[in-house]
User: Fold this.
Amino acid sequence: MPGHQQLSNVSLEERAYRIRRYALRMGEVQGQGYIAQALGFADVLAVLYFHAATYKPEDPEWEGRDRIYLSIGHYAIALYAAMIEAGILPENELETYGGDGSRMPMSGMAAYTPGMEITGGSLGQGLGIAVGTALGLRRKDSQQFVYNLLSDGELGEGSTWEAAMSAAHHKLSNLIAVVDFNNQQADGPSQEMLCSEPLTSKWEAFGWHTQRVDGNSIAALAEAFDRARNCEDDKPRVIICDTKMAKGVPFLEQRDRNHFLRVEADEWEKAIEILDGAQAK
Assistant:
């Protein structure tokens, strides 16, 4: 059963808008959150959940599902928003985000949240877990994919490249890594902290089928996911997605040092109004 997007006429652009809107509503609950990442990564999540991935919303542990691993655990607000839109999580729990006893803690934890496959962070661990799962699925003759969502900051972790080398060695063609390249981490621009360029040729040298695309272009993303899934090379696949932090809310896009973006109490609703206005055009 493909991701249930095929059961609806809702466009991927509208899915991305709703994901952004859910994320802003959750951020408003706590007055904080990694909202710049959620807004920037929403287009990727819309294409992943409503074009590429196979799952059953009513059964998050269905054996026939593709696995979606959020290595970047602080992006949980973005994944919750996508899973609400997908029907995996109920919208009426949105107001519990980050609260005591919530199934939506501020950092993603598999023990708390249906559909959250792994506990993400410390950063750099997710790709190794994904390699192990891809190996296990192959040995079970499963046709399902493992999607591993990781950040450009994680490319500074040696464990990421050890996992990348292992995946190529084992010819894990059922593994698709998705890198959010927003060039921002806690201490500043990622490429000033530890430059990972030339990134495309680096992944290729590690034996991966590699694509680099505009991570805020729905059309480019859909084509990239299709190529990754249908590639006949006996290699793991990576999609490097160049995204813009806080995409869709111009006054937030323009703020400096936006790894953990400060949003004032009166700005959450203003941001939602901007999204709504752009969607209505």
The two ends are 34 Å apart (CA to CA).
